[in-house]
Design the sequence.
């Protein structure tokens, strides 16, 4: 009796399956993989056809794994890690030179520092230049190829990019401060390109709360100064809040705010090898 012929798994299909499970749906997985929804749906269908069974069930709440999917997901993730490790060790060239990474100033401390530390240990011959600006202007710079990749803050309905993290926007004030009690509410925000600003203003308008600007600049340090002085509050992502400030509780009486995405963006075409390697390190750092 002849032995069964070996069958091979398509890593790209496993990666799509893992992204759908991790993101909780095809739309979010498409953003994560920087693919269209149709492409992710097709990859998932091909994987199910390969195994001859359904791996996920779709309902109003999103997706849930079938028993076969539950058995596969752990094995799939192990294979993906091994695949990436092989490419990292064998397939990459010896990188050197410079790569320009754009991010808003409020992300530099929580996101930039661990990225710089990790990448410098792996590739000490590469100089990473951090370019700070608002998320909107950074995406424009990326389109003009003035930077090589960018980590930006975008609203939950934004398209494009790979989602590294979902963060709820929160009201922030001085520790044990009282600025949130003032009328009109004093605000310290970014300028008119800041993605947090229109969300905060819309929420205040819906709640019928008057407000006034104390500060509206693109510098995170300048935004924090009046908040630390307890003469203003500010909408911030919790991961970016300095130790001197505190996220205000619901009892502060300020209206709830929406979630934001922290997204990784590469050029639409022609990303350089060093930029791709830095992007790979960023993904690994945020998937750990």
Sequence:
């Amino acid at each position: 009796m002849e032995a069964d012929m070996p069958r091979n798994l398509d890593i790209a299909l496993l990666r799509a399956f893992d992204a759908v499970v991790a993101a909780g749906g095809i739309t979010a997985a498409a953003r994560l993989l920087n693919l269209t929804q149709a492409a992710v749906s097709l990859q998932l269908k091909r994987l199910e056809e390969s195994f001859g069974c359904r791996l996920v069930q779709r309902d109003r709440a999103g997706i849930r794994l079938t028993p076969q999917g539950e058995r596969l997901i752990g094995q799939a993730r192990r294979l993906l890690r091994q695949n990436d490790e092989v490419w990292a060790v064998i397939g990459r060239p010896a990188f050197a030179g410079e790569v320009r990474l754009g991010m808003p100033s409020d992300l530099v401390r929580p996101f930039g520092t661990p990225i710089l530390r990790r990448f410098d240990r792996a590739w000490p011959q590469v100089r990473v230049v951090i370019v700070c600006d608002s998320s909107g202007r950074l995406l424009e710079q990326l389109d003009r190829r003035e930077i090589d990749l960018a980590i930006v803050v975008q609203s939950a309905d934004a398209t494009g990019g790979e989602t590294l993290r979902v963060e709820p926007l929160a009201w922030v004030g001085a520790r044990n401060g009282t600025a949130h009690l003032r009328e009109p509410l004093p605000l310290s925000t970014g300028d008119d390109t800041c993605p947090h600003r229109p969300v905060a203003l819309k929420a205040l308008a819906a709640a019928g709360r008057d407000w006034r600007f104390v500060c509206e600049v693109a510098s995170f340090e300048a935004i924090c100064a009046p908040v630390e002085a307890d003469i203003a509050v500010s909408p911030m992502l919790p991961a970016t809040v300095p130790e001197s400030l505190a996220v205000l509780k619901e009892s502060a009486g300020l209206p709830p705010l929406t979630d934001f995405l922290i997204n990784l963006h590469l050029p639409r075409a022609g990303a350089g090898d060093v930029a791709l390697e830095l992007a790979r390190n960023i993904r690994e750092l945020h998937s750990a």
